[in-house]
Design goal:
Elements: E1 8-9, E2 13-17, H1 23-31, H2 34-40, H3 48-61, E3 67-73, E4 76-87, E5 92-99, H4 108-123, E6 128-134, H5 138-147, E7 150-160, E8 165-174, E9 185-186
Parallel strand pairs: 5-6
Antiparallel strand pairs: 1-2, 1-9, 2-3, 3-4, 4-5, 6-8, 7-8
This protein binds coenzyme A.
Coenzyme A binds next to helix 2, strand 5, helix 4 and helix 5.
Amino acid sequence: MIAARPPLLTGRLVLEPIEPRHSQGLWRAKDASFTELRRWMAWAEQARESQDDFVRSAHEQWGHGEWVYVISFNGEPAGTVGIDRHQPLISSADIGYWLRTDVTGRGLMTEAAAAVVDWAFHELALHRLELRAGVENYASVRVAEKLGFRRGGILRHGARNPRNYYDVYVFDLLATDERPGARAKSIEANQRPPAGEVRPPSPPVERPRTAPRND
Ligand SMILES: CC(C)(COP(=O)(O)OP(=O)(O)OC[C@H]1O[C@@H](n2cnc3c(N)ncnc32)[C@H](O)[C@@H]1OP(=O)(O)O)[C@@H](O)C(=O)NCCC(=O)NCCS
């Protein structure tokens, strides 16, 4: 049995650990965003069964190197933001996200991702987060910048959509870097994930206290 996993709350969003019950709503969100998603996401054209398999697997794999949150906006699933490619030896992992097209451009992904970044540094005790954004994916690049990520080099053909590979910028953020203030609070503040789901390699890093930036 999988223990209860608290959602994260932000000003406008509820971020819930992914569960099979989210599948239908995510499918609707994906279907409504097909044109934009197929520019950037390798899975954009996957069939419903493949998506359901992913949702089931992500639910079961929670805490085993990946943590996927469903973004709920006005009570409806509107996308996901997740941590994966966890490398425990160097306390590093990747963050990725997508959002339903009709609710983009309102700062929602920055709000959602900021909450998960904060959660990952505190609850998973990560030291480093990596984010890859297509060099022409201006919205995603901007989200990375607003979150305080720093731009590194280019990975040639570091990602693909259903048709083509494309180049990506690698961004990273260290737990000790200056970044905008935390915008989420767990329903049960400071509650750690259930025992056995996360094995922090080092004690939690103290959050730098910085003034919010006017990005
Ligand atoms: C990328 C994505 C998650 C952004 O979500 P969002 O909720 O619109 O993001 P935000 O509103 O928090 O921020 C978007 C920023 O990009 C800017 N932006 C959007 N389109 C832009 C463009 N064509 N050129 C320049 N800036 C652009 C917005 O103005 C905003 O910046 P601002 O706050 O400084 O004005 C969303 O567009 C999406 O899901 N795209 C498809 C999937 C995807 O690309 N995922 C990321 C893969 S790395």
